[in-house]
Amino acid sequence: MVHIPDYRLARERMVKNQLIPRGIKNHRVLDAMGKVPRDRFVEEALVNEAYNDHPLPIGHNQTISQPYIVALMTEALKLTGKEMTLEIGTGSGYQTAILAELSKRVCTIERVRPLMVKARTVLAELGYNNILFKAFDGTLGWKEYEPYDAIIITAGAPKIPQPLLDQLADGGRLIVPVGNRFRQELIKATRKKGNIIQKNLGGCRFVDLVGVHGWKD
């Protein structure tokens, strides 16, 4: 009989030791982080590191973000379960799964097609049916389903891509790392009656956001 590891305790420890002590309070975010099997989204050779407090490589010069950063960005979106959410950078699909737990519908864009295909397969196996996928330049957004109540960009940008601001609903929240290629500040932008209000959530480091309104490949 094949032994399949049970990572529930690892998820519980991740929530208790990494997220709550650093100020993650939203119970819906904590529940989602405790539910989604992060081990399904990492390379097989790294599965025992899935719940450790650091990012991991997923191939194609991309990473799966540190659990705390996933929780921090997700909490900042203030999701209630009614949102149309846009994710720029599907990557492994882990952040996508967290968003799918907390949103009505998730539209996710990934420019590296093999990553998108792999993520779509894992997410389907886990039973998520409220996610739409697109292989495309994420800096251009996805106009077909705008406006979005929440937008999350999981790569570092030189500035907030204007098309994404344009696709944000009134009252909508956008989270993006902005800075140079070595260090960024996590910025939350909220649209209120046509105005964009920005808040700095602190320093971070992400892979490059490549595209027309990002870094050149």
CATH superfamily of the domain at 54-204: Vaccinia Virus protein VP39
Major sheet, described briefly?
Answer: 7 strands, mixed
Low-confidence stretches: none
Order of helices and strands: HHEEHEHEHEEHEEE
| Average predicted confidence as pLDDT | 96
Strand ordering within the main sheet: 5-4-3-6-7-8-9
Number of strands: 9
Describe the global form: globular
Count the DSSP helices. 6
- Radius of gyration, Cα only, in angstroms? 16 Å
The N- to C-terminal Cα distance equals 47 Å
Instruction: Please write the CATH class name of the domain at 54-204.
Output: Alpha Beta
Helix content: 25-40%
Beta-strand residue fraction? 25-35%
Class inferred from helices and paired strands: alpha/beta
CATH-derived topology of the domain at 54-204: Rossmann fold
CATH architecture of the domain at 54-204: 3-Layer(aba) Sandwich
Task: Based on the model shown, name its key terms.
globular; 28% strand; alpha/beta; Rossmann fold; 217 residues; 9 strands
Describe the structure.
With 217 residues, this protein is an alpha/beta fold. The protein has a domain at 54-204: 3-Layer(aba) Sandwich (Rossmann fold), CATH 3.40.50.150. The chain contains six helices and nine strands. The strands form two sheets. It has a seven-stranded mixed β-sheet with strand order 5-4-3-6-7-8-9. α6 links the parallel β6 (148-153) and β7. α1 packs antiparallel against α2. The protein is globular, with a radius of gyration of 16 Å. The relative contact order is 0.13.
